[in-house]
Automatic annotation (TrEMBL):
Classification via SUPFAM superfamilies: (Trans)glycosidases
Organism encoding this protein: Lacrimispora xylanolytica
Pfam families the UniProt entry points to: DUF5722
InterPro entries attached to this UniProt entry: DUF5722 (IPR043780), GH (IPR017853)
Domain DUF5722: from-to ranges: 149-546
Record keywords: Signal
Signal listed as a keyword: yes
Source species, domain of life: Bacteria
UniProt protein name: DUF5722 domain-containing protein
Annotated signal peptide: 1-29
Presence of keyword DNA-binding: no
Length: 557
């Protein structure tokens, strides 16, 4: 969040159906002079998996045209039809019109990632009469249709690979790992994609194989965070015009140029196939987070932009990943990530409110083809240097309404209530998948020194809030072992203390109170006993007094 993610792999971390393809009417008063209106209602791969059908509603005054409606294909980086004379399909005008055309899957003419517009021909040029629209069911062509691996509990942890035994003893069900997108191109692995050969770094991929297979091989649900750092050797992966920034850790993905789109698509497709679970030696990724905390460009830098153009550029890239992933493994889940600044720290140039990001992302998707996107959220205490979140309203940044500057564990139901509104639901009418993938509680205080009991109490309270909330699927705590760099900044998040004489190396030394609480908290037999100590710290008599719909209320004394 406001700390550097250390290491490459495990560290640091409307209404339903019709919105799936709804777009606004566009008249030629806006885009031309032929007086035609068109709305793309659906853009779907057929059950034969070889063809695409686009359905539109249309009000046509074809005067000044050749009397034909055309469907024209555009690449994600294309914004107009200048100079175009080709088309994907054509039809006679009518109040409802259907176009069908080949998908051309796995060829240089592959249309899986394309967008489409309705146009008319005025004798010299195409005039667009609809908004662009993408295919919205890439899962139709997925080879892997295995159900999502939903663990029995929501308990997760950012772990150290050399402490897998400890994680297994703790009963970790969810785990996250980082993938450095900008380090994948290289030599050693050749990959064919849509008629081209791409080359990937064999040693880098081997490291990910070992990490991911070790985690998924233990039955853990693996969440991967795809991060695009700066690499002078891979300029096509950086959004055009972006300058290297000393304050940016990661950068916007590039699908705004032909070269950027080609390389991004190929890498995304390779990762989706590699970690589909088909090969146990590579492992299985089930959740994919595209970028990190995108409401703050420190983690997704492209330079000063208004929120609409920023989110549009991000969504263009997100959709490429989404399409690559869902067309490989139909039931994988794809997320974008926010920090806890819901309506806070906003300049609308490089920092945006989380609420505005959600609204803008959803609005653009409604227009261009809705997806089954999910939300990854980071509800750290405010401030992060103190573990007690239950008094965070005293900061003036926490309220119980949608205008709250910050949403964290203190007002977590505000987030899920917001996401449960009909306009934000998924294309199937369900509340979107929400996972908490980076949060922790420090065991040290600048004013009080060591406070491991308070850390443990904060985790117990926060876990109960998540466990009792039906709209949150996972809670991945940061971290298994303290990181020295974070400890020096006053953040001791670990279940274990670390050695402070090994530089930045993470070496576990001693368990904290939170270790046992973490181990037992999702076990009916032990959960209330292991968290009893926390009530006096928080100042409560019963968990059900402060945890809405407390899961263990029936056995609470």
């Amino acid at each position: 969040m406001k700390r550097i993610k250390i290491g490459r792999a495990l560290t640091g971390l409307v209404s339903a159906a019709f919105l799936c393809c709804a777009t606004a009417f566009v008249s030629l008063a806006d885009v031309g002079s032929a007086g035609v209106q068109a709305e793309i209602q659906s853009c779907l791969i057929n059950s034969d998996k070889n063809n695409v059908t686009v359905k539109i509603s249309n009000t046509a005054n074809m005067e000044g045209t050749d009397g034909v409606l055309y469907l024209v294909e555009l690449q994600p980086y294309q914004s107009n039809l200048d100079g175009r004379t080709d088309y994907a399909a054509k039809a006679s005008p009518g109040s409802t019109v259907t176009f069908t055309f080949p998908l051309n899957r796995n060829t240089p003419q592959d249309r899986l990632y394309s967008k489409f517009v309705v146009a008319v021909w005025d004798g010299t040029k195409y005039i667009e009469v609809s908004k662009p629209h993408y295919i919205t069911n890439p899962e139709m062509v997925a080879a892997n249709t295995t159900a999502f691996n939903a663990p029995l509990t929501k308990k997760g942890l950012n772990i150290e690979l050399n402490m897998l035994g400890d994680a297994f003893e703790l009963g970790v069900k969810h785990v996250a790992t980082n993938i450095a997108f900008h380090q994948i191109l290289g030599e050693g692995i050749d990959y064919q994609f849509d008629g081209k050969t791409y080359h990937f770094d064999k040693n880098v991929i081997k490291g990910y194989d070992e990490t991911i297979s070790a985690l998924s091989g233990k039955g853990m649900t693996v969440t991967a965070i795809i991060l695009n750092g700066w690499n002078d050797k891979t300029p096509n992966l950086i959004y055009p015009g972006t300058k290297k920034s000393s304050t940016a850790f990661y950068y916007m993905f590039n699908t705004a140029t032909p070269e950027g789109l080609d390389e991004t698509r190929a890498i995304a497709s390779f990762l989706a196939e590699r970690y589909s679970g088909a090969n146990p030696n590579s492992g299985k990724i089930s959740n994919w987070i595209i970028g990190n905390e995108i409401n703050n460009q420190q983690w997704n830098y492209v330079g000063a932009r208004d929120i609409t153009s920023y989110v549009q550029a991000y969504q263009n890239a997100f959709r490429v990943f989404y399409t690559a992933i869902k067309s490989t493994s139909a039931n994988d889940r794809v997320y974008y990530s926010l920090d806890y600044n819901w309506n806070n720290e906003i300049d609308n140039k490089v920092k945006y409110g989380g609420k505005a990001i959600v609204d803008t992302f959803n609005s653009i998707a409604n227009e261009q083809g809705q997806m089954d996107w999910g939300l990854s959220y980071h509800p750290y205490p405010c401030p992060m240097t103190e573990p007690e979140f239950w008094d965070d309203d005293k900061t003036g940044l926490i309220t119980n309404d949608y205008n709250s500057p910050v949403i964290n564990f203190k007002n977590l139901t505000t987030l899920t209530n917001y996401m449960a509104q009909d306009p934000l639901k998924s294309p199937t009418g369900h509340v979107r998948h929400i996972i908490l993938t980076e949060q922790g509680f420090t065991a040290t205080s600048q004013s009080r020194g060591n406070i491991p009991q308070v850390q443990a109490a904060a985790f117990a309270y926060s876990y109960y809030l998540v466990d009792s909330n039906p709209y949150i699927d996972a809670y991945i705590l940061s971290r298994q072992v303290d990181a020295p760099l974070e400890v020096r900044s006053g953040l001791s998040f670990g279940l274990w203390e670390c050695a402070m004489d090994r530089g930045d190396d993470i070496v576990a030394t001693k368990r904290r109170k939170i270790w046992q609480v973490f181990k037992d908290i999702d076990k009916k037999k032990y959960t209330l006993e292991t968290t009893e100590f926390a009530k006096s710290i928080i100042g409560i008599q019963k968990w059900s007094d402060v945890v809405p719909d407390f899961r263990w209320k029936s056995i609470e004394k």
